[in-house]
C-alpha cells in the first residue's frame, strides 16, 4: 500500500468488485471474464494497448454499457443493473478521453454546476449568492487542481492542459468515493504532466481511483497497484515496480526498452 491509500479494515467491503464481467458486441468479446477487486482508498492503473478493453471496462463500471454477464459491486452494493446516475449518487465519478465542458461559461460556473448537479437543491431556480456553500466548494476544487488564477476565465479560452485539470475538478464534485480517470495525460506537455502527477498524488486519501493511461511514466507514479489487460482479459497484476520489470510486459507493451 502506498501514498495515500488506506487499507480496508477486516471484513469491510471493497470499493469496487467485478466478478466474471464480460461484454459482447455481437460475436466480439470486448471483455472476457474480468474479476477484479479494488479496496477503499486504493489507487490502481489499468494499462494495455489499444483494443485491450480498458475503456469498455470503464463503461461497464459506470453503467454506460451493461455487462453481458457478471456482477459489479460498489462498496458492497450490487450496481450491475443500475443506470449511471444511480452510481453517481453513490459516489462514483469518471472523466472521459474527450473533454465535455461548457466552453462559453467561466471555470467557476462549470465547477459550480457540477457541485449543484449532485446536490439536493439541483433543481432550484434561485441564483446562488457569493456566500453560497456550493460556490465555496467549487472554489476549493478549483484550487485543488491549480486553476485559481483562471477561475473567472471562459473555459473555451483555457489551454488544453487546463481543461483536463478542470475535468478533474468536476469529477471531485459532490464528495466522490471513487473516480475513474480515462487517459488524463493525453495531449499534455511534459510540464502539464508533472502538474497532473502532483494533482493526483495530492487527492484526499479516502478517494480511491483507477487510471487508464498510455504514459507509463505518469501512471506508475500515481498508483500502488497495476492491472494489465490484453485482448479483453486481465493479463498481469502487481505493484508498479513488478509490472515495470516484468519481461512479458516489456515485450508486449513496452518494446523491451522501458527504463
From TrEMBL:
What's any GO biological process attached to this entry? L-alanine transport
Q: Which key words are in the record?
A: ATP-binding, Nucleotide-binding, Transport
- Domain of life assignment: Bacteria
Q: Which GO terms describe its molecular function?
A: ATP binding; ATP hydrolysis activity; L-isoleucine transmembrane transporter activity; L-phenylalanine transmembrane transporter activity; L-valine transmembrane transporter activity
Q: Which residues form the ABC transporter domain?
A: 16-256
Cell membrane recorded as keyword: no
ATP-binding as UniProt keyword: yes
Q: Which GO terms describe its cellular component?
A: plasma membrane
Record protein name field: Amino acid/amide ABC transporter ATP-binding protein 1 (HAAT family)
Task: Recall the taxonomic lineage recorded for the source organism.
Answer: Bacteria, Pseudomonadati, Pseudomonadota, Alphaproteobacteria, Hyphomicrobiales
Amino acid at each position: 500500500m502506498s501514498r495515500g491509500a488506506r487499507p480496508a479494515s477486516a471484513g469491510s467491503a471493497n470499493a469496487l468488485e467485478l466478478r466474471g464481467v464480460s461484454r459482447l458486441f455481437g460475436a466480439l468479446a470486448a471483455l472476457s471474464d474480468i474479476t477484479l477487486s479494488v479496496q477503499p482508498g486504493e489507487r490502481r492503473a489499468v494499462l494495455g494497448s489499444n483494443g485491450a478493453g480498458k475503456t469498455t471496462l470503464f463503461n461497464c463500471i459506470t453503467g454506460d454499457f451493461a455487462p453481458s454477464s457478471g456482477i459489479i459491486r460498489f462498496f458492497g452494493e450490487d450496481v450491475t443493473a443500475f443506470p449511471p446516475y444511480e452510481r453517481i449518487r453513490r459516489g462514483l465519478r469518471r472523466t472521459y478521453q474527450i473533454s465535455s465542458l461548457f466552453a462559453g461559461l467561466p471555470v467557476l460556473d462549470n465547477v459550480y454546476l457540477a457541485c449543484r448537479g449532485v446536490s439536493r437543491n439541483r433543481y432550484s431556480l434561485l441564483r446562488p449568492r457569493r456566500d453560497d456553500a456550493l460556490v465555496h466548494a467549487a472554489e476549493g476544487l478549483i484550487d485543488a487542481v491549480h486553476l485559481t488564477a483562471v477561475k473567472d476565465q471562459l473555459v473555451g479560452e483555457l489551454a488544453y492542459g487546463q481543461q483536463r485539470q478542470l475535468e478533474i475538478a468536476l469529477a471531485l464534485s459532490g464528495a466522490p468515493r471513487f473516480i475513474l480517470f480515462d487517459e488524463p495525460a493525453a495531449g499534455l506537455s511534459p510540464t502539464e504532466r508533472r502538474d497532473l502527477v502532483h494533482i493526483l498524488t495530492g487527492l484526499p486519501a479516502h478517494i480511491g481511483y483507477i487510471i487508464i493511461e498510455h504514459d507509463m511514466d505518469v501512471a506508475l507514479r500515481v498508483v500502488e497497484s497495476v492491472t494489465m489487460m490484453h485482448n479483453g482479459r486481465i493479463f498481469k497484476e502487481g505493484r508498479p515496480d513488478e509490472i515495470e520489470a516484468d519481461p512479458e510486459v516489456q515485450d508486449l507493451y513496452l518494446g523491451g526498452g522501458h527504463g
